[in-house]
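Subject: sequence -> structure tokens, single chain

Hey, anyone have a minute? Need the predicted structure for the following. Not urgent.
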Amino acid sequence: MEYKVLVLDIDGTLTNSEKQITPRTRAALKAAQEKGVWVVLASGRPTYGIMPVAKQLELEQRGGYILSFNGGRIIDAKTGEVIYQKTLPPEIPALLYDLSQEYKTNIMTYLDETVITPKKEDPYVALECRINGMQVREVEDFKSFVRFPVTKCLMVEEGDYLAQVEQKVKARLGDTLSVLRSEPFFLEIMPKQIDKAYSLGRLLEHLGLTREQMIACGDGFNDRSMIEFAGLGVAMANAQEPVKAAADYITLSNDEDGVAAVVERFILGR
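Reply:
Had a minute. Here:
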């Protein structure tokens, strides 16, 4: 099989523990692009948080796609064209705020280059801002402020507790919304049918390609759907155990150039 699309999660996959793309990985991706392979950055990050990575890989010049908000939006990195987008029903952010109060978690969402939250002094909010290079804005009345289109909300708290909250939110909203954890401490709530696999299916339709022509690499719970969907689903050595179990192939860790190893073996044939 000649693979035409390479889908990469960012944190814990494409970047190492220092949030950097290593020279070996960068060189392997450049060679894949020169061979005509589309590189897709697929992340739970907001679009703004993915753009610096896209620029490092020269997707604006070479072509490629950005799948942000876990699939809530897909854009053509070269043209800026929105290929696909879906937002939450307008009443949902207020409902999620009420649930966050009931379950004693913090909540956040995004507006352009800013993280919006009712509680700024939160280590998980600080982490999200640092990962994405975004500023934070604390709003006293989250429900009244968030009246703009929202692609995703996050509830955040310590992982073991948030796992319990995840089940409660799924029980109440799982029929109408997509609810999953991208990290143990990040519970992501998105429109129904939005996950990386569904949105990648829409991208493949746009490109006129099949899932058999796709490689998808990831490490987190939110990567499992695309790993199961892709023709070759790859889990990093540092991936969550359920993600490894779903994969066709397990590569090296993100600190051992695991993405480069996949590209070199399955695309470049080295």
